[in-house]
From TrEMBL:
Keyword field contains Cytoplasm: no
Residue ranges of the TM segments: 23-45, 57-75, 107-129, 141-168, 180-206, 226-246
Name of the protein in its database record: ABC-2 type transport system permease protein
Keywords for the protein's UniProt record, in alphabetical order: Membrane, Transmembrane, Transmembrane helix
InterPro entries documented for this protein: ABC-2_transporter-like
Signal peptide feature range: none
Organism: Glycomyces endophyticus
Amino acid sequence: MASVDLALATISFKRKIAYKTTWLFSVLFGGWSLLAGLAVWSNLIGDGEMGGYDWQAMKAYLIVGFLTSTLAWAGSDWEMANRILDGLVAVDLTKPVDFQRARAGEYIGGMAASVPAAILGTAAAVLIFRPAPPDSALAAVLTVVSVLFIFPLAFGITYLSVLTCFVTQRYLGIQWARDTMLAFFSGMMVPLALMPLWLQGVAWALPFVHFTTTPASIYLGRVDTAGALGLLAAEAAWAVGLWVIGRLIWSQLVKKVTVHGG
């Protein structure tokens, strides 16, 4: 099965990089978003600080957010959704391939196609804007580990949202709602430290927080080593939990599959 997973991921990777214009546009759009964020927070913070972030730290936070958002939104979620909406899922059920694992391979392969652009964009941002360096060499390594966990987390959240197509027979609204929740509760829009305490508590109870706040907190040393390891453990637990939940929901939904027109 591992060879099948790798083959599906490779096909998805090649499909993504084949559309170079779309690929470049997504990177440029992320770059403009980063520039806009830097301009806004530069004026807000000035020579002071907000939520414990001075200007150097905020630059690092925004660049980490650019990296993680580039990866988080790079998967092929519409391909998954269309398999359900178009009834192709019925064909999948006749194949000796696990549906969830197959979609995971395709989705993560699509995310992998964004890695070179994400790395180049992040390196360019670091060279141009000179943000605060990582708190330590260990913090840098743990930040990389945290970013890697985004791959299974992004798939887990996306897969659950796609499964709603069995009920809604629509996906666009679900996608918008999911992406909005991700951008807000991850801290991509506004750092969690600037939110009311009750809202911070809600954010930390959801998996979205690990897309930006967790890697940025580790990078900047806002948590100690034990805290960083705890955050990584939480990411791992969410990755496993989302996979199991997706499997349980699929096992129930697949019993009620209705293929329109066939």
